[in-house]
Write a structure and sequence with these properties.
aminotransferase; 13 helices; alpha/beta; single chain; four-stranded antiparallel sheet
């Protein structure tokens, strides 16, 4: 056994080694009949995308080699054309777009390139769980501001729109130490789609305090009930200070391809390119080629009924509504999401079902999620995993489900919930 007197790991890894996914993925693999925990579709990517991949595989042999490090030329070109349409401004594919190994690496590049020791980064809670460790690894200090629920008075189900920022509380988090704010709209885990008014408030504070915005928009096409996804970079004064992050995995239901991108002004992206070239350097060429062809198809069909970006949210909205009804029937109170493929449900009515664990400081939502997967075979994720230490104890009555699943998977989940409901009524 080698004994070293000094710690082996870098100081920046202290306190960020625990990861919810390791534990819950293992639990789901061991016990679950139906896994609505992890956020990926179990249905196939669209035929046109799979065909593009097959064509690329058997076509030009150079697609098996390196392409341009900052993005395969056909892909950055079509992404620039697409975002020109969405943002209403001219983009240079070579300087305003960078391709990354999934949106995850785009986020990592942002924090490494833009955040210095001692910089503060505002994170809106609940948040996608990698933001906090990535800020800390860059030497920054995360500053948290929660969305606060305002339940409707009429007994109706809550919507993700009922979770809102307190404008005064948000403004109080900005200071001369603030370097950036992380915005995630549509928001994972809540499914909240930020309104123009809410985005305007954030934009005003960014401009006033000269703060950057890291805008995670991976669910940009997954919005429901005619809601509109508004891009904060399109608001006044925001293009020059925003990096938009996107994902082919979420856009085309192909999460394993790991193709993401960052779109923004060259003054910001040039620094992301430095991190990219000194970390992963390059992303899989064939996957980029296939995604480029997928976007070319969608550019031609933009706004038309045949567009995948029109069809997918219609399909997912139906699935969302099924799951909402199933959960509501068993006594979990779902918070109806306006976007994403996640849904958060209130489990406070189940406290008597879940045995207390003596001497455990584990929050109720963790205990409930573990009990549910072991006893009911249904996997979900505790919501407090998406909160900072300071705030997580206020949000332990909720769990998160993913509804981007085959009809058969959702039917199996419904069967578990129906059986559970019968057991509850008979006892």
């Amino acid at each position: 056994q080698v004994k070293m007197s000094r710690p082996v790991q870098a100081r920046r890894l202290e306190g960020i080694d625990k990861n919810i996914w390791v534990e819950f993925v293992k639990l789901a693999a061991t016990y679950s009949k139906v896994n609505l925990g992890q956020g990926f579709p179990d249905f196939p990517a669209p035929d046109f995308l799979q065909e593009a991949f097959t064509r690329a595989l058997g076509g030009n042999h150079m697609l098996h080699q390196y392409t341009r490090a900052f993005g395969h030329p056909p892909l950055v070109k079509v992404l620039a054309q697409f975002f020109e349409k969405l943002l209403g401004r001219d983009l240079d594919p070579m300087t305003n777009v960078m391709v990354t190994v999934g949106a995850y690496q785009a986020l990592f590049c942002c924090f490494q390139a833009l955040v210095d020791e001692g910089d503060e980064v505002i994170i809106i809670e609940p948040f996608f769980d990698c933001y906090e460790p990535m800020v800390k690894m860059a030497g920054g200090t995360p500053v948290f501001v929660p969305l606060r629920p305002n339940p409707p008075k009429d007994g109706k189900l809550m919507s993700s729109a009922d979770w809102q920022l307190d404008p005064a509380e948000l403004a109080s988090k900005f200071s001369e130490r603030t370097k950036a704010i992380v915005l995630n709209s549509p928001n994972n885990p809540l499914g909240k789609v930020f309104s123009r008014g809410e985005l305007g408030l954030i934009a005003e504070l960014c401009v006033k305090h000269d703060v950057l915005c890291i805008s995670d928009e991976v669910y940009e096409w997954l919005v429901y009930n005619g809601k509109q996804h508004i891009r904060i970079a399109s608001l006044q004064g925001m293009w020059d200070r925003t990096v938009i992050i996107g994902s082919a995995g979420k856009t085309f239901s192909a999460t394993g391809w790991k193709v993401g991108w960052a779109v923004g002004p060259d003054r910001l992206l040039q620094h992301l390119r430095t991190v990219h070239q000194n970390s992963v350097y390059h992303c899989a060429t064939i996957a980029q080629e296939a995604v480029a062809q997928g976007f070319q198809r969608e550019l031609m069909l933009y706004g038309k009924p045949d567009s995948y970006f029109v069809q997918l949210p219609k399909e997912l909205q139906q699935k969302r509504d099924w799951l909402v009804q199933s959960l509501d029937a068993v006594g979990m109170k779902p918070i109806v999401p306006e976007g994403t493929y996640f849904l958060v449900a209130d489990i406070s009515q189940f406290k008597s079902d879940v045995p207390d664990v003596p001497n455990s400081d584990e929050p109720y939502d963790y205990r409930f999620a573990k009990w549910m997967v072991k006893n009911k075979g249904l996997a979900a994720i505790p919501l407090s995993a998406f909160y900072s230490e300071a705030h997580k104890n206020n949000y332990t009555n909720f769990i998160r489900f993913c509804f981007a699943k085959e009809e058969a998977t959702l039917k199996a989940a419904n069967d578990i919930l129906q059986k559970w409901k019968q057991e509850k009524t008979s006892s």
